[in-house]
Automatic annotation (TrEMBL):
The gene is cadA. One of its GO terms (cellular component) is plasma membrane. Belongs to the cation transport ATPase (P-type) (TC 3.A.3) family. Type IB subfamily. Residues 128-228 form the P-type ATPase A domain. This is Cadmium-translocating P-type ATPase.
Length: 630
């Protein structure tokens, strides 16, 4: 991307530049500008020599790349600039040749600096990992580098210290600050068994953490790597710009040759040769070539630093065109921490018997609903040979069943089931040949959900709820969130089919947990995984992964993508407009080389500065979207 104008460059070289004045192209531009100014002031033969020296200094930014292109059988924009510079010198237009070098070098330097700064900001996430970490080895505490950690090591983290890699807390209680990773400012309480991510700050007491991933394979390192890959993925707009720019360069050279050849027939050959050189500069698609990739790099980098992993230009562009958002209920609109709120036993059955039967069936399940039941009834031995029937429930070898009303007849508890569902609870029934009772589990709505729904509507996006839960429960919860479109009692394949039907001329995003909603996430124009930090499946499969649990990231990243898409359209439009205007003016001699060089490079600088706006833009406050500290 950074080399669109003047041939391949080593990005690493530019990444080392910490300030504008450390960028090689800008250093050459400064030298060339000083020589050019001195030549203009001095005048005469000495001034001509200084102008020529200025042209050579400026050309050093694009001639090497042009030579490499020619040796590889390619013709790039750098080739056009080289021919124009040589032609200007041959015609004695030293001032114009020097001006071309100065302005082109400035534009190239700004482009490389903008990309390097964005990527440095992203890689700075890795600086969250401390240079050393305390580890218990052979009964004593030693300091080691993160790269020396091995699986099973016990890290000792005191208050204020960061985790060097991923692990599981084995002792101690604390609060974890994940703001640098997920963008969430509220600390998370954690104790034994809780996951500790690389870069997280221990905000409470001293804890011991068992290492579960090497530092190079930590969730933080993986996210940085994926974002760097995402920044290089081309979107639809970039492929279109490439299709325009690629044939444009040889076409420009053919046009220049025809114009120069016309001089032999229509008039002074030198005049027409000069016009041909001016056309080479005027029609150079440098600004067009960088218009979209630079914006993508900036926007994806900015999103990642706020806890949203956008998987490349295509995902960014699609995200900016979303008209409908389908939201899964559990874990997206709700907190994903369900609890048993009521147990209704059948006649002659005790509450404890109902919970015991349910706990035995759920003993080996990791489903959130199962965890709620096991918390209410711990210590029961698991049932033998339990089979899960998707969309229905569980059944054991001895005939005990747990599942949704409809699969199990609620019988005498039908009115209680309706009452509980209307109150927003999920109801499961338990039987062993005869009905044992009903268990109501409720997963509370996220506090920010109504605000998020309001923000989506301010963006012109209509939210809809998709859930496998029953219609009464889903409707009750949707009403609290302010969602009017509800699709309930859906199997995973039903969600995927429904997302496909929801398009109706609109781009659809599906927001889910990245695992259970995988078919729908894959079917949607953009799949968005909620709370994906540390979840390999979610990060790898979703088009967009919201690393934290705060739902407010959703409208914020949508608004951010729309802003980035507007910047892309503005940059492409400006680039094409400049080329369209300059070519005829240059071909008919209305504009000279100096003027065309100035306008052409000014357009490139404007494109670069406009693209940087995508990096500087923040999520908070866009289109009525609430900031994260609201």
């Amino acid at each position: 991307m950074a080399d669109a104008c003047c041939g391949p460059q080593e990005d690493a070289d530019h990444d080392e530049a910490q300030s504008l004045w450390q960028v090689r192209e800008l250093q050459l531009a400064a030298v060339a500008a000083v020589l050019l100014a001195a030549g203009w002031i001095v005048g005469g033969s000495v001034g001509t020599g200084l102008e020529l020296a200025s042209a050579v200094a400026g050309a050093a930014t694009f001639v090497p790349g042009a030579v490499r292109d020619v040796l590889k059988g390619r013709v790039g924009v750098g080739t056009l600039m080289t021919i124009a510079a040589i032609g200007a010198v041959a015609l004695g237009q030293y001032f114009e040749a020097a001006m071309l070098g100065v302005l082109f070098s400035i534009a190239e330097g700004l482009e490389h600096y903008a990309i390097a700064r964005t990527r440095r900001g992203l890689r700075a996430l890795l600086d969250l990992v401390p240079p050393t970490v305390s580890v218990l080895r052979d009964g004593s505490e030693v300091q080691v580098a993160p790269g020396e950690l091995v699986l099973g090591d016990l890290m000792v983290l005191r208050p204020g210290e960061r985790a060097a890699t991923d692990g599981v807390i084995t002792s101690g209680h604390t609060s974890l600050d994940l703001s640098a990773i997920t963008g969430e400012s509220v600390p998370v309480e954690a104790g034994p068994g809780a996951v500790m991510h690389a870069g997280a700050i221990n905000g409470g007491g001293a804890i011991e953490v068992e290492v579960t991933a090497l530092a190079s394979d930590s969730s933080l390192a993986r996210v940085v790597h994926l974002v760097e890959e995402a920044q290089d993925r081309k979107g639809v707009g970039q492929r279109l710009a490439d299709r325009i720019a690629r044939p444009l360069v040889p076409a420009i050279m053919v046009l220049a040759v025809l114009i120069a050849g016309a001089g032999a027939v229509l008039g002074d050959p030198l005049v027409w040769l000069e016009r041909a050189l001016v056309v080479l500069v005027a029609a150079s698609p440098c600004a067009l070539a960088i218009s979209i990739p630079l914006t993508v790099v900036a926007a994806v980098g900015a999103a990642s630093k706020q806890g949203a992993l956008v998987k490349g230009g295509a995902a960014l562009e699609e995200l900016g065109r979303i008209g409908t958002v389908a939201l899964d209920k559990t874990g997206t609109l709700t907190r994903n921490h369900p609890r048993v709120v009521e147990v209704v036993p059948a006649q002659g059955v005790s509450r404890e018997d109902v919970l015991a039967a349910a706990a035995a069936l759920e003993a080996r399940s990791e489903h959130p609903l199962a965890q709620a039941i096991l918390e209410a009834a711990p210590g029961h031995p698991p049932a033998e040979d339990v089979t899960a029937l998707p969309g229905h429930g569980l059944v054991s070898a001895d005939g005990r069943r747990l599942g949704k009303p409809g699969w199990i007849d609620p019988g005498e508890l039908a009115d209680d089931v309706v009452r509980l569902q209307t109150a927003g609870a999920t109801v499961v029934l338990v039987d062993n040949g005869t009905l044992l009772g009903a268990i109501a589990v409720r997963d509370d709505l996220r506090g920010e959900a109504p605000q998020v729904v309001d923000s989506l509507r301010k963006l012109g996006i209509e939210p809809a709820m998709l859930t496998g839960d029953n219609y009464r429960t889903a409707t009750a919860l949707a009403a609290k969130a302010g969602i009017s479109v509800v699709h309930a009692e859906l199997l995973p394949e039903d969600k995927a089919a429904l997302v496909d039907r929801m398009r109706d001329g609109h781009k659809v995003a599906m927001v889910g947990d990245g695992v259970n909603d995988a078919p729908a996430l894959a079917t949607a124009d953009v799949g968005i995984a909620m709370g994906a930090m540390g979840t390999d499946v979610a990060i790898e499969t979703a088009d967009v992964a919201l690393m934290g649990e705060d739902l407010r990231h959703l409208p914020q990243v949508l608004a951010h993508a729309r802003h980035a898409r507007r910047v892309m359209v503005q940059n492409v439009g400006l680039s094409l407009a400049i080329i369209t205007v300059l070519i005829p003016l240059a071909a008919f001699g209305v504009l000279g080389l100096a003027t065309v060089v100035f306008v052409h490079e000014l357009a490139e600088v404007l494109v670069i500065l406009n693209a940087i706006r995508a990096a500087r833009s923040t999520f908070a406050g866009r289109a009525g979207v609430l900031p994260l500290n609201a």
